[in-house]
Amino acid sequence: NAGVTQTPKFQVLKTGQSMTLQCAQDMNHEYMSWYRQDPGMGLRLIHYSVGAGITDQGEVPNGYNVSRSTTEDFPLRLLSAAPSQTSVYFCASSYDGSSYEQYFGPGTRLTVT
Amino acid sequence: AQSVSQHNHHVILSEAASLELGCNYSYGGTVNLFWYVQYPGQHLQLLLKYFSGDPLVKGIKGFEAEFIKSKFSFNLRKPSVQWSDTAEYFCAVNLANTGFQKLVFGTGTRLLVSP
Prior knowledge:
Number of helices of chain B: 0
Helix content of chain B: under 10%
Oligomer: heterodimer
Strand content of chain B: over 45%
Structural class of chain B: mainly beta
Order of helices and strands of chain B: EEEEEEEEEEEE
Mean pLDDT of chain B: 92
Distance between the termini of chain B: 41 Å
Mean pLDDT of chain A: 92
Largest sheet of chain A: 7 strands, mixed
């Protein structure tokens, strides 16, 4: 199993550009999440999904969209990038919502200039 | 608002020293508690967790944590650190039965162990 994979590893965007961060898992997990990690802020939940076709907002959803058309994939879309979205983004998955043992991807480091 | 505090942002130790990283939370009620670790260049992984029962929890790689309800604390300990323990450590908390989406992470503690 590859676990949770994320692409790209690094990305530089200009303000106003859009892009999609990819996340995939091969563990047949129902639950998937996107977090951003900022210095001094810990990890904050952006969006999450409890199964294909079902998504919901986390703590900091503004400026991001998600969809979950398959169990495996959970892409995160930045609609119009802003410097405040410079961060490290982590995707995570878990096999149910109560175990809390989330498996994290390697992260995407995004810089918006 | 519910919050998780990790007061030590950076810790530097020599190999074989003992480690204690603090974690305090502000929730009322029954909580689930976690420590995650992120080694350099790697993704976060679960170190240990507490749901109920014995408040002293053993995790991987010789780590343990003690839940002290009266102090709202869940400190991470290791009797003798190794260079390979250099990493960032995150405490996380949520109210029992509220789901993974309610998990709140602390700001992290960067541990550097010198050989």
